[in-house]
Amino acid sequence: MEESIIKIRKLSKRFGTQEVLRELDLDIPKGMITVIIGRSGGGKSVLLKHIIGLIKPDSGEIYIDGINIVKEPEDKLNEIRKRFGMLFQEGALFDSMTIEENVAFPLVEHTKLSHKEIKERTKEVLALVGLTGAEKKYPSEISGGMRKRAGLARAIIAKPDIILFDEPTSGLDPIMSAHIDNLIVEIQKRLNVTCIIISHDIQSTFRIAHKIAMLFEGKIIAEGTPDVMRALDNPYLKQFIEGLSEGPIQVVDNE
Ligand SMILES: Nc1ncnc2c1ncn2[C@@H]1O[C@H](COP(=O)(O)OP(=O)(O)OP(=O)(O)O)[C@@H](O)[C@H]1O
Ligand SMILES: [Mg+2]
Q1: Domain residues for 131?
Q2: What is the pLDDT along the chain (255 residues), one digit of tens a residue?
Q3: Are residue 147 and residue 242 in the same domain, yes or no?
Q4: For ligand 1, what atom is nearest to the CA of residue 49?
Q5: What's the 9 CA to ligand 2 centre distance in angstroms?
């Protein structure tokens, strides 16, 4: 495929005796949408947190434009983090701040832009995600779909060149999910950014991905374009895509 902006090599991480990532390799193509799929508790969020340096691996490398961030000191890592926007799985809006304040936060924290410029830019991204009018509301006063869109606005406001989305459509109705998908595709095109999305939603995955990677038992067991993934004769992937309880992936009762 095209040029990779991120290269992950032999990434391993365990928590206590639980091995979550096992010598995982993955390349993320630049300026495209890569969707990572996999079972609940399979380590997808842990993988994303490694990519922005929030978790250190036990071993392995993560190259961002050729720099191995695992070896970088905290101050350099902070510089590199400015290239990223992140929509956390939990939304992670600050309850005590209005939507406007939440969305403006990355600019207030990390830039020297004037109050006026921040205000304008905030207005612009809120309009982009369809939240004009909700500026003064608090997260508890708006719906789940609106909170996701506010998180999306916050993830893009500082014009990152890599955006990570952890389950941007979970818990939303199919219409709102499709709307968020369209927004992500539009933002990706407009800003020409690299997007990494974690998703459980197979329909949406095939709709928006340029590349799909399936995480299973700590490794990427299948990857490729949607067409390649559809055609692959991998029983694990097939079971996942088709959503079957019968197959090589066993559901354990205490999960
Ligand atoms: N900081 C941590 N300390 C200990 N265990 C952790 C930590 N973070 C994650 N884990 C464990 O690692 C495993 C993978 O978690 P992770 O959140 O990455 O799963 P996931 O694939 O994102 O699942 P979901 O689809 O449900 O969000 C889980 O068993 C989780 O309990
Ligand atoms: Mg997760």
Answers
A1: 91-159
A2: 579 999 999 999 999 999 999 999 999 999 999 999 999 899 999 999 999 999 999 999 999 999 999 999 999 998 898 899 998 876 688 999 999 999 999 999 888 999 999 999 999 999 988 899 999 999 999 988 889 889 989 999 998 999 999 998 887 888 888 888 998 999 899 889 999 999 988 888 999 999 999 999 999 999 999 999 999 989 989 988 888 888 888 877 666
A3: no
A4: 18
A5: 21
166 and 79 co-located in one domain: yes
* Nearest-atom index, ligand 1, CA of 16: 4
Of 118, 125, 117, the C-alpha closest to 85 is 125
Q: Report the distance separating Cα 217 and Cα 20, nearest Å.
A: 7
Distances (CA, A) of 35 to 27, 54, 75, 104, 107: 12, 20, 29, 27, 27
Which pTM was predicted? 0.92
Rounded (10°) CA dihedral 171, 217, 11, 46: 20
Number of domains observed in the structure of the chain: 2
* Contact by Cβ (8 Å): 160, 84: yes
Residue pair 212/32 in contact by the 8 Å Cβ criterion: no
Q: Which CATH number fits the domain that encloses residue 30? A: 3.40.50.300
What does the DSSP assignment read for 37-57? EE-TTSSHHHHHHHHTTSS--
Q: Rounded to the nearest whole angstrom, what is the distance from the C-alpha of residue 249 to the centroid of ligand 1?
A: 18
Residue nearest to atom 2 of ligand 1 (CA): 15
Q: Are residues 102 and 199 in the same domain?
A: no
How far apart are the CA of 227 and the centre of ligand 2, in A?
Answer: 25
- 58 and 17 in a single domain? The answer is yes
- 247 alpha carbon, distance to own chain's centre: 28
